[in-house]
Amino acid sequence: MPQNQTTLEFPLRRPYDRPEGYYVTHPNGQVSHYYLDSFVDPWLPEEEKPVIILNHGCARTADMWYSWVPRLARHFVVIRRDSRGHGKSSFPKRLSPWSDQQNNVYEGGYQWDLDTMLYEIVDMLDQLNIKRVIFLGEATSGEMGHAFAAKYPERTIALITCSTPTSLPPAAIKMFAVEESSWPEAVIKHGSRGWNERLARNPGTLPKDPVYLEWLLDEAAKTKKEGLAGYVIFLTHLTSRPWLKNIKSPYLILAPTNSTAVPLSESRWISEQVSGSKIVEIEAPGHEIFSEATDRCIDAVLEFLAELNMAI
Questions:
Q1: pLDDT at position 299, please?
Q2: Which residues make Cβ contacts (< 8 Å) with residue 100, sequence separation at least 6?
Q3: Which residues, listed in sequence order, are joined to residue 162 by a DSSP beta bridge?
Q4: CA distance 262 to 279
Q5: What is the residue-averaged pLDDT of the chain?
Q6: CATH classification of 9-167+239-307, choosing from 3.40.50.1820, 3.30.230.10, 3.40.50.720, 3.20.130.10?
Q7: What band does 17 get if pLDDT is binned at 50, 70 and 90?
Q8: What InterPro entries would the database entry show (predicted)?
Q9: Residue 42, Cβ neighbours under 10 Å: how many?
Q10: How far apart are alpha carbons 131 and 84 in whole angstroms?
Q11: Residue 75 and residue 312 in contact, taking contact as beta carbons nearer than 8 Å
Q12: Alpha helices in 93-245 (DSSP H)
């Protein structure tokens, strides 16, 4: 495993010199993997090199942001992070049975909850000497973005969410269980790829393009089923609704028009709760607008950030 990268100075001089990415180890023992890409003019002062951190949704990986990097990295230091239990990031061993989602005991007393998820993001930024970021969260990572912006306004330049709910309703959790006893048990039984294959049978969930879907399934398979199952238990208890009223940072909502998991009414409701927020409705076949309508999403992001007088 590569040594921790604790300063941005070296990778900013030589972007793309570490295709395998970087790692940080948190005080709780967990390890977070990330990629760092930047083609910002190297002679600019640090305050003119804003950092944007891309956080993927459930059962995705940092690699799935690949198509966003070329356009964003010319203007921003782009960090793509594997969430806890996903991709190359670590996860704690579960001691409770998967059938018990109320008593969630993990090795070393690890608390797989929102406070820990936010702490690990902040700790990563601290280790990289990053004071403030543009937080972009896709799907359920956007819920963490709601909490991050509300809890750490001094660390938040702007918040952007993409296909993001405020909680997962019982109907969605039942759908994600793909006809098994529970969502995490479905993941353990079928594995990360097998679970995604079954979910794809529901219209408006995964992309329709068969070639892209096959690549997505191969990427999903890189996440170990135990890591994904632990993460989905965390998601079943997560709600960002209490945080919305405290979001004061500039906020852009990228809203899918045809998502089964996040109806357009949900995105519009979020916009109504956050004063001054901006919503852009993105037409696409289903939920995955970050991959099925990439350029339209990036256009909206760059326009939004330009309105904040960021040099684009």
A1: 98
A2: none
A3: 138, 254
A4: 14
A5: 93
A6: 3.40.50.1820
A7: low
A8: AB_hydrolase (IPR050471), AB_hydrolase_1 (IPR000073), AB_hydrolase_fold (IPR029058)
A9: 11
A10: 22
A11: yes
A12: 114-127, 140-151, 170-176, 183-199, 210-220, 225-236
How does pLDDT run across 29-51, given as a tens digit for each residue? 999 999 999 999 989 998 889 99
DSSP strand pairing (31-37 vs 22-25): antiparallel
Residue type, 83: S
Spatial contact of 218 and 193, defined as CB atoms under 8 Å apart: yes
Q: Give me the pLDDT at residue 47, please.
A: 84
Identity of residue 219? E
Contact predicate 91/227, CB 8 Å: yes
**Residue range 79-103: average pLDDT?**
96
Average pLDDT in the 114-127 region?
A: 98
Rounded CA gap, 157 and 43, in Å? 22
**Residue at token pair 């949900």:** 266
Alpha carbons 246 and 216: distance in angstroms, whole number: 35
HSE, side-chain direction, 13 A CA sphere, residue 169: 7
Q: For 179-217, what is each residue's pLDDT tens digit? A: 999 999 999 999 999 999 999 998 878 888 889 899 999
CA distance 290 to 286: 10
Q: Which two tokens stand for residue 23?
A: 């790692």
pLDDT for residue 203? 83
pLDDT digits (tens, 9 = 90+) for 225-241: 999 999 999 999 999 99
Q: What integer is the mean pLDDT of 231-259? A: 98
Q: Please give the full DSSP string across 271-310, using - where no structure is assigned.
A: HHHSTT-EEEEE--SSS-HHHHSHHHHHHHHHHHHHHTT-
3-state secondary structure of 247: coil
Per the listing, tokens 């076949």 go with: 285
Cα–Cα distances in angstroms (integers) from residue 250 to residues 145, 157, 266, in the given order: 12, 7, 19
